[in-house]
Design brief:
The chain is mostly helical and 214 residues long. It has one domain (10-213). The protein is built from 9 helices and 5 strands; from the N terminus they run αββαααααααβββα. It has helices at residues 10-19, 45-60, 65-71, 75-96, 102-116, 119-127, 136-153, 160-176, 201-213; strands at 34-38, 41-44, 180-181, 188-189, 194-195. Strands 2-1-3 form a 3-stranded antiparallel beta sheet. It has a two-stranded antiparallel sheet with strand order 4-5. Helix 2 (45-60) crosses helix 4 (75-96) and helix 5 (102-116) crosses helix 6. It is globular, with a radius of gyration of 17 Å. The protein starts with 9 loop residues before the first helix and ends with a helix. The model is unreliable at 1-25 and 203-214 (pLDDT under 50).
Length: 214
């Protein structure tokens, strides 16, 4: 809700990622090896690195690999932002009584693929936002959860006021979860439901998703 930038070449970025030492703490040295702690549960550095590698590996296979890497230079913080937001959204949906079925995800994705001009084209479009092919279903599910929460609170996601109301609702959820991010990646903003300098990617992703679907 991902996402997202001067970038290193793919090989250099991968080397830096592999060489980066494991963090010894999150916040005040209370959570060794954690990139963030959300509602008492850790997102480990290794989990974050694995997600980043998945994106970079997919980007390397693209004919537009250099451009993709350049446009997603700050991939670590952006990816962590998405991983935290996933948990906030999941909690918000649970609190609102919103659920999404596997069938709904498949239907939404099929419609998006038709609109995009095929499954491969849709993958390319999402990869531009640093979303690996294996994460597309999860992202689609997020869009449906956002739709469901918005409907419950009477917010129109197509309007700025609706987006603001949805952000306020998720912000309340975020504050309840006690999110603690390792300073290396920035500081979590409960009010905006976003990590540091990552500018409201969930809003950006939602807009792109609606364009693909329609």
């Amino acid at each position: 809700m991902f996402r997202r930038r001067t970038a290193l070449p793919v090989s250099a970025a991968a080397a830096l990622l592999a060489a980066a030492p494991l963090l010894t703490a999150c916040g005040a040295d209370a959570h060794p090896g954690a990139a963030a702690v959300v509602d008492g549960q850790r997102i480990t550095v290794s989990q974050l690195q694995s997600r980043v590698r998945d994106v970079r590996t997919a980007q390397e296979k693209s004919p537009q690999s250099a451009q993709l890497v350049e446009n997603t230079g700050k991939l670590g913080p952006a990816t962590l932002n998405g991983m935290i937001f996933d948990r906030v959204l999941e909690r918000g949906a649970k609190d609102a009584g919103v659920t999404v079925s596997r069938r709904e995800v498949q239907q939404w994705r099929a419609a998006a693929e038709r609109s995009a001009g095929g499954a491969e084209r849709l993958k390319e479009m999402w990869l531009q936002q640093a979303i690996a092919p294996g994460e597309i279903d999860a992202v689609v599910r997020n869009q449906l959860l956002l739709d469901g929460i918005a409907k419950r609170i009477g917010a129109d996601r197509g309007q700025p006021q609706g987006q603001q109301r949805l952000a306020e609702s998720l912000g309340e959820t975020s504050r309840k979860m006690g999110i603690d991010v390792n300073p290396r990646y920035g500081k979590w903003d409960d009010a905006q439901v976003v990590l540091g300098e990552v500018k409201e990617p969930w809003v950006k992703n939602a807009t792109a998703a609606e364009q693909q679907r329609t």
